[in-house]
Every structure is written in structure tokens, then in C-alpha cells.
């Protein structure tokens, strides 16, 4: 009898155990299904798209802080595969236990308001919005507050049934800084000769309105350095030419004396020194108020000095300064070769301006062999950086426009051009006319 009771009890326990597992699985499935809210951190995905001069707001690793100005607008960006409705929540807190504030959230022309209250972080329900495919912009604006600040916001929560592969935002803290800068993009040119190349010529135009602060429009890139123009501030622009040292370090002070890039000569008004943080080497720049909508001509020379080093020299044609102007000539040790690795690139170096778009055109590209033959560049490959490849942000494209190569990034546009796409243009007919003996 006791054996039968034991068997029945054991059977009941097994049944209950299986039932519990089944229930747990069902609950687990429901929890997985409920995990449809993506937590988009403001740290890597938000910008102050309107910030009055006296505003104190900042985007930091913990999100939006010091939010006090009602005229400030904070915009959060993410990308969806196709048009859909989204349920939004805000992970936020008011400044103190006794304070409250009213916040407006806007997506695609539709606005809803919520109240933040208390110093505890909470997920506030905002509501349902319609979103188009591609990058989506959600704006936050403070309406009223009882204290000094509206509150702190760490995440925008997005409710959607999209699979993670179809919903894109910066979700890796290691990339937040780079995602806010935006993906860099490049044109790698095909050179129509295996002969040594001594000169590299190219023209560059930044269209009007595409010269956002923080932009570097790099015209003549090569294996050992880069040469282009940048926007450093509202009042300052530069022509920049840099050459890397053969010693791999981000700290120029670590470079042994015999491996340092040294200055041969420089142009009038040109500043020279060292650079770091992205490799190290010699840097030269001329403060010059170049203008969007105007074309600029770049000329680069690379020639071995016969003693185990190579001299790299950069000139730019400035019509208001009597033609070709020398930027600098640098000597790179432990290298004896002509120019290689021909490319251009576009980047933003200001993480606070990653929401702004920029575009650049590259035209009339030529190389001149060491024997004196000019050859036109007709083909280029569009490539992107690690931020794009890591799917943290993908608003970067390149291609051909009116028989000119172009690059575009920033601004959270939704057009996609497949990385490693190859583009071609018709061969330019007239080689550059340059009196090399008269170059400064």
C-alpha cells in the first residue's frame, strides 16, 4: 500500500514539476514578447538641436543633465526598417522629491506632454506615434518646472515589434562618442598605372550650407598622411596637412628622436607642430577663411630623398594669394617610396555637431608619374569606418554626382549606399598646367 502511495505521490510531483516548467516557459515566452521596448540611451543618440547661448544643458554618459532652458530642444535619433507605430516611454526623474516639471515629446509633427515628479528614476508612458521608415527624430522640450531644472533623462524607450536587426541606434557605450560624431566615409581611388607616382592633384568643393562646424573635408589622402580643409569654429577655418610617424603611438612624446617626422620648410603664416590621438606625427596648418561653394586645388608631392627617408610636400592654389601657396614639406624617416594609397575622406570631429549634415565634391583628380606622365583618376571605391560597420550609425554615403565623386555624412538621412560600392566617371581631358619649377 505504501508503495502505491509513494508511486502516486511521485507521479503527482513529476506532473507538477512538468506543469511548472511549462508555465515557466510560457511566462518566459511572454516576457520575451514583452521585451519590445528598446532602451535608447541619450548618451550616444541625442543632441541639443536648439541651444540658446545661455543654456546649460549637456549630454553626458548618463544622458541629459542641467536641463533648465525652455527654449532648448533635445533630439533623440534611431532608425527603423519600415513605417510603423511606436509606443514611447521616457526614463527620467525630476530634480528632487518635491519638484515636478512638464515635458513635451514630439515625433513627426505629433506632440504629447507628460509630467515628471519626484527624484526617483521612472519609466514614464508617453504614448503612441506614427513613424516613417529610416531615421526617426524625437524632440524633447521643457514646458514648465517648479525647481531650477526640468529633470534628468537617461533613455527614450521605444516599443516596437521590430527585430533588433531592423532597429538601429548606438547601443555600445564604447561607441557613444564616435556615434555622436557620426560615421566617417572615404573614397579610395584606383590609380591607372603601376609606375611610381610623384604628384597627386585634385579639386574639392564644399557645397553652400554643407560646411558645418567640426567638418574635415580631406582632399588628398595618401598612405602616410592627409591634406584638406576643416571648419574649426564660427570664426576659424584651416588648411591642414599632416604626416604620420613610422612609430605607432597616440602620444607624440613617445616617438624616438630618429623616428620623428621633421620639417623641411613651411609656407608663410603656417603653424607647425606635432599631433596625436590618432597615430602621431608632424602637423601643419594655415588659418584661412575658405568659402563654401568655391573650388580649391590641392597638389601633393612624395619623393624619396636618397638617404632612406621620403619628403612629402603640400601646396594649395589660393587665387587671393597669387596662386600656389606652400603649406609645408615634411621628411618621414625609414621610408623610401613615392606616393601610394590615394584617397579622400569626410569626417566630423565635433561630437556635439553630429546631427548636422555635411557634403563634399571631389573632381578633376590626376596623378603624375615620376617620369612626368599625367594620368586621370576615373574610379573609386566608397568605404566606411568602424562606427558604421558596428551598426551604431549609418548615415554616410558616397557616389557620383554630375561626373564628380562625392561623400556625405551626418544629419541622420535615410539613404543607404552599400559600402565597398565602386563608382566611375569619364576621364578628364585636360591635365593640370603647373610650372613645378615655380612652386614655392
TrEMBL record:
<dbReference type="Pfam" id="PF16871">
    <property type="entry name" value="DUF5077"/>
</dbReference>
<feature type="domain" description="DUF5077">
    <location>
        <begin position="40"/>
        <end position="160"/>
    </location>
</feature>
<dbReference type="InterPro" id="IPR031712">
    <property type="entry name" value="DUF5077"/>
</dbReference>
<dbReference type="Pfam" id="PF11958">
    <property type="entry name" value="DUF3472"/>
</dbReference>
<dbReference type="InterPro" id="IPR021862">
    <property type="entry name" value="DUF3472"/>
</dbReference>
<protein>
    <submittedName>
        <fullName>DUF3472 domain-containing protein</fullName>
    </submittedName>
</protein>
Amino acid at each position: 500500500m505504501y508503495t502505491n502511495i509513494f508511486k502516486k505521490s511521485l507521479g503527482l510531483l513529476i506532473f507538477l514539476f512538468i506543469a511548472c516548467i511549462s508555465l515557466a516557459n510560457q511566462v518566459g515566452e511572454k516576457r520575451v514578447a514583452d521585451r519590445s521596448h528598446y532602451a535608447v540611451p541619450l548618451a550616444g543618440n541625442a543632441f541639443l538641436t536648439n541651444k540658446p547661448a545661455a543654456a546649460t544643458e549637456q549630454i553626458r554618459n548618463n544622458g541629459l543633465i542641467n536641463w533648465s532652458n525652455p527654449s532648448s530642444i533635445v533630439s533623440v535619433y534611431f532608425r527603423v526598417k519600415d513605417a510603423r507605430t511606436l509606443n514611447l516611454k521616457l526614463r527620467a526623474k525630476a530634480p528632487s522629491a518635491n519638484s515636478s516639471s512638464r515635458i513635451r515629446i514630439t515625433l513627426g509633427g505629433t506632440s504629447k506632454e507628460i509630467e515628471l515628479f519626484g527624484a526617483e528614476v521612472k519609466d514614464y508612458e508617453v504614448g503612441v506615434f506614427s513613424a516613417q521608415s529610416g531615421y526617426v527624430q524625437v524632440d524633447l522640450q521643457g514646458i514648465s518646472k517648479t525647481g531650477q531644472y526640468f529633470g534628468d533623462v537617461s533613455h527614450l524607450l521605444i516599443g516596437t515589434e521590430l527585430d533588433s536587426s531592423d532597429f538601429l541606434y548606438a547601443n555600445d557605450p564604447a561607441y557613444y562618442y564616435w556615434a555622436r560624431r557620426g560615421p566617417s566615409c572615404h573614397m579610395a581611388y584606383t590609380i591607372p598605372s603601376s609606375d611610381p607616382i610623384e604628384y597627386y592633384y585634385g579639386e574639392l568643393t564644399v557645397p553652400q550650407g554643407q560646411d558645418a562646424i567640426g567638418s574635415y573635408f580631406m582632399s588628398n589622402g595618401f598612405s602616410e598622411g592627409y591634406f584638406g580643409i576643416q571648419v574649426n569654429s564660427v570664426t576659424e577655418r584651416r588648411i591642414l596637412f599632416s604626416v604620420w610617424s613610422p612609430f605607432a603611438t597616440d602620444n607624440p612624446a613617445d616617438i624616438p628622436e630618429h623616428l620623428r617626422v621633421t620639417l623641411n620648410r613651411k609656407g608663410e603664416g603656417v603653424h607647425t607642430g606635432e599631433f596625436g590621438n590618432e597615430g602621431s606625427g608632424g602637423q601643419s596648418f594655415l588659418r584661412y577663411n575658405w568659402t563654401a561653394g568655391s573650388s580649391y586645388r590641392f597638389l601633393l608631392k612624395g619623393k624619396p630623398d636618397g638617404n632612406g627617408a621620403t619628403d612629402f610636400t603640400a601646396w594649395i592654389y589660393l587665387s587671393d594669394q597669387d596662386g600656389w601657396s606652400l603649406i609645408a614639406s615634411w621628411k618621414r624617416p625609414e621610408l623610401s617610396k613615392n606616393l601610394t594609397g590615394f584617397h579622400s575622406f569626410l569626417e566630423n570631429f565635433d561630437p556635439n555637431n553630429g546631427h548636422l549634415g555635411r557634403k563634399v565634391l571631389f573632381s578633376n583628380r590626376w596623378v603624375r608619374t615620376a617620369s612626368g606622365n599625367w594620368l586621370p583618376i576615373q574610379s573609386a571605391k566608397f568605404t566606411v569606418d568602424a562606427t558604421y560597420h558596428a551598426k551604431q550609425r549609418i548615415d554616410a554615403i558616397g557616389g557620383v554626382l554630375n561626373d564628380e565623386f562625392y561623400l556625405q555624412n551626418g544629419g541622420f538621412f535615410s539613404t543607404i549606399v552599400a559600402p565597398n560600392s565602386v563608382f566611375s566617371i569619364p576621364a578628364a581631358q585636360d591635365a593640370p598646367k603647373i610650372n613645378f619649377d615655380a612652386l614655392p
